[in-house]
């Protein structure tokens, strides 16, 4: 801590000089080290992390690099800490911060846009044109913790005040880490038009985003909501989160026809596509009715061939959804606060900070039916 820090700290939360932090070496190589604690600047706070969830995107970052972008390139061997779905307590305030108090429980969204580019000015800060431009003499003010700046697989993090959401005392640490996942589907559904009440909606792929997609869609009034997957255990959780119907691809001869049997010959109004495979994308196109909308919530690792003529002829819209923009996490938190759905159903495992490599293995190989795994940095 430098003597020049002119923000606020509290004796209630004494700050050590160093913390435990995982850093990324080569691909798939993580090291647990001591990192100095940096103090917050203007519009920033220091968060003592109490829980951080593992996301499929963390697995991509750790093994391949993108969408992380550190110092203009791949994130390897740059002393970079991944992890982006965390929550904790505010323990220091940067100069002039009055939006939060020391001791507030908060959860985070990822992106803090530069605030000056065309997209940020439209409120589309997850699509900031200055993503990752924050190194050397370049500092556009953009931050995305766990992607372009240090993330949450450690004990403390710096966050811009506009990336924080207050957590009620009644909500557990583990549940609070899920707000950003619910916020991603909330962003998708609101970008698709939002008025999904009474509209038929299919979710393909019961990962964390798909499962919470079911929950958010139901909370927004969509119906019937149909969940498609291959694992019975996950489909069961989908039903607990409100899915009116679940379809196991393995048991259906023709998944498009199975959906039409439920919603009618014309097809469904909305699809949230969370699988990212060629088959799932084409199924999504073929089960959507004329003028219907598809939300792309998963990203395939390579280009995929899809049925464009069918889309054009039938005026089917497709939306790429990046992150959890337009303050969607705040709307998701409101639903979770009101217990409109039980997000905790997707949390399956908890590990200590030192066990991160094991936890990542559980997430990658879905050991013991793992869905959402949470790390407790102080256990
Ligand atoms: Zn994530
Ligand atoms: Zn921007």
Give a short synopsis of this structure.
This protein is an alpha/beta fold and about 375 residues long.
Written account of the structure:
- By secondary structure, this protein is of the alpha/beta class.
- It folds into two domains: 8-110 and 145-177 and 346-376, Medium-chain alcohol dehydrogenases, catalytic domain (Quinone Oxidoreductase, Chain A, domain 1, Alpha-Beta Complex); 181-320, Rossmann fold.
- Helix content is 25%, strand content 26%.
- The protein has eleven helices and 20 strands.
- The chain has helices spanning 56-63, 118-121, 173-176, 179-191, 208-219, 232-240, 255-263, 278-287, 308-313, 328-337, 356-365; strands at residues 8-9, 18-24, 30-36, 44-53, 85-93, 105-108, 111-112, 134-135, 138-139, 143-144, 156-160, 164-166, 201-204, 225-229, 245-248, 268-273, 288-296, 317-320, 347-352, 372-376.
- Strands 1, 4, 5, 6, 11, 12, 19 and 20 form an eight-stranded mixed beta sheet that branches. A six-stranded parallel beta sheet has the order 15-14-13-16-17-18, sandwiched between helices.
- Helix 8 (278-287) links the parallel strand 16 (268-273) and strand 17 (288-296).
- It is globular, with a radius of gyration of 21 Å.
- It starts with 7 loop residues before the first strand and ends with a strand.
- The protein binds zinc ion (2 copies).
- One zinc ion (ZN) binds next to loops.
- One zinc ion is lined by residues 55, 57, 84-85.
